[in-house]
Write a structure and sequence with these properties.
Length: 387
């Protein structure tokens, strides 16, 4: 565990605020919890810290993954299992932070470099799968599909989009994906019967190599739409693929036809943090600091200008019931990040919590507990010391 010293902070809730909030700080890695209730959330009513835990350093992480039993998995520099009360149950040496996902039987899947690992809930290695030499690492995943298989996309000369069965055997792969900027730490965008992916080089596009494509869960390349300036897509709960380029958000049907597009106002050059709620409502940041929401049919619901302030936001996460979204911001321009809770119906800010510590800010998106009563936020302290 690299000589880490867990740190626990316990505080009372001064008001019936929002959910318990857990901040996972993977440089000086701190997991902090705040008490409250979604149903009684009020403007600027912040919860208080009830515990924290130290983890190893990494500058960026995927969102924590909360298992059905409430335990929390996070891949910082190491892979951790943390109890709902903030106790580290086990950890595994594992560089190259990737998303963590949980199979229907509780198997824990994580990745590092060219390899996908499967662990029991007790932390015992079941199997590992390493793609052949020539690839440049995992760009997305591992992500468990509704069929129980494990999906990932690897870079460069690797296998590309691939599926493994729960025993770790390769079912199929579609090569040809490449990113000039390196690997990533997001899940694979999965619809019920297909995956979507967008990259600088994708198989199947004819106009030019950059674009968005779809592969069904049997490994058949279905279609590809050429794009310039693509960002990673999001699979909407309605099965569509959402993707933005410079200033425009697009919705594609499962058959590859465009359903709608939405042009953001000038200056419209930067869109980031695209996500959806369980009701398929859409949330995205415009010009870094402005948060917008659209309906599943591409109509504007609301916008809140300047909500991110002087720090860059991380993708929002919507509560399981769709009523609240929470986003953190990164350390930017000498200013620490913060955590912001927003009413998803109208964009009203429920509370804002500063992230404290030396040069501290978010390292990745937050995750809600299964009942929506807890939020875990990964945070990093730039230049800090591992604990």
């Amino acid at each position: 565990m690299k000589n880490l010293v867990p740190r626990h902070l316990t505080m009372r809730n001064p008001s019936s605020g929002f959910p318990i909030l857990g901040l996972v700080l993977p440089l000086c890695g701190l997991l902090i919890c705040f008490v409250g209730s979604i149903s009684t959330a009020s403007a600027q009513a912040a919860g208080e810290i009830i515990w924290s835990v130290d983890l190893t350093y990494t500058p960026s992480t995927a969102a924590p993954r909360v298992a059905p039993d409430g335990n929390i998995y996070l891949h910082s520099e190491d892979l951790y299992k943390i109890s709902p009360v903030g106790q580290i149950l086990w950890s595994k040496d594992s560089g190259d932070s990737k998303p963590v996902d949980i199979g229907p039987d509780g198997t824990v899947y994580s990745g590092s470099g060219l390899t996908i690992f499967a662990y029991t809930p007790a932390g015992q290695l079941i199997w590992s799968f390493t793609e052949p030499p020539g690839g440049q690492g995992i760009m997305a995943g591992p992500t468990v599909g509704a069929d129980g298989n494990i999906y990932a996309v690897t870079d460069g000369g690797g296998l590309g989009a691939l599926a493994l069965n729960p025993a770790g055997s390769l079912l199929w792969n579609v090569p040809g994906y490449s990113n000039n900027d390196g690997t990533g730490i997001k899940p694979v965008p999965l619809a019920p019967d297909r995956l979507y992916f967008a990259e600088e080089f994708v198989p199947g596009c004819t106009d030019f190599a950059e674009g968005l494509n779809a592969v069904d869960l049997d490994g058949n390349l279905l279609w590809c739409v050429s794009f310039s300036g693509v960002a990673r897509p999001v699979a909407s709960p309605n099965g569509d693929a959402l993707m933005n380029d410079t200033g425009t958000l697009y919705d594609y049907n499962p058959d590859g036809s465009r359903e709608w597009s939405f042009q953001f106002p000038f200056p419209s050059g930067t869109l980031l943090g695209l996500t959806t709620g369980p009701d398929a409502n859409i949330y995205i940041f415009h010009s870094y600091v402005n948060l917008w929401s659209l309906t599943p049919t591409g109509k504007k619901r609301w916008q809140v200008d300047g909500i991110a302030g002087g720090t860059f936001p991380v993708m929002p996460t919507v509560s399981p019931d769709g009523s609240v979204l929470v986003f953190p911001t990164v350390y930017s321009f000498g200013v620490n990040g913060k955590v912001v809770a927003v009413n998803s119906a109208d964009g009203a800010v429920l509370w804002t919590l500063p992230i404290t510590g030396p040069s501290a800010g978010a390292s990745g998106p937050v995750a809600f507990s299964n009942d929506g009563a807890t939020v875990y936020v990964p945070v990093t302290e730039i230049g800090g010391v591992n604990k």
